[in-house]
Design brief:
- The protein is an alpha/beta fold.
- It has a single domain, classed as Rossmann fold (3-Layer(aba) Sandwich).
- It contains 7 helices and 10 strands.
- The protein has a 6-stranded mixed beta sheet, sandwiched between helices.
- β7, α6 and β8 form a beta-alpha-beta unit.
- α3 packs across α4, α3 packs parallel to α5 and α5 runs parallel beside α6.
- It is globular and about 50 Å long.
Amino acid sequence: MQGIIHLEDICKSYYLGKQELEVLKGINIDILKNEFVALMGPSGSGKSTLMNILGCLDTTTKGRYILNGHDVSRMIDDDLAEIRNKEIGFVFQQFNLLPRLTAAENVALPLIYSGIAKKERMERALEVLHKVKLDDRSHHKPNELSGGQCQRVAIARALINDPAIILADEPTGNLDSKTSHEIMDILGKIHTDGNTVVLVTHEEDIAAFAHRVIRLRDGVIETDSINANPSVIIQPA
């Protein structure tokens, strides 16, 4: 069965002068709708390059990438930008919030590019902030929020366009253990609500929340395994 993400013989090379550096060497992956997948691998394994290709931030040297029915392998930049805005919600380690905007304004930002009127943008922003339990901080700016709260704002922003896929790149990398688990609890709920979640991490305890773990090494898939007992957060009564 072809997945919502279908990678077929994906290769990626960079050139340093005349020297070719092969980063990905024939990656084949199918990720089905509503899977929760962790991508892992040591430095230099190719996981960041693969994430950039999945997020349509970079293009392949060879191979086909089908994203939710769209062949994005050879799309031009404008088309890739449109696909990114419609199909993918990004969550980054650094949050990437605009400091002069409130939480709600940061969340609503992607809707500007969709031509949504301001009133509707703010209404939808408050709805998704409620999903990440941050609607009471909607008028606060990033410097008035904790790191965990900033990441929840970033997750809400990723959800605002109702994307097919959430791509989370080291989303707990700047957070302490307790806050990291709170963020993973939110991503777990997003997955339970029907989203496909792809997570890049180097932390085993974070990957343990995923239902499937794909490990890369030297540009190839080393293992692709099902996690039969994914971690869950037990909420206090």
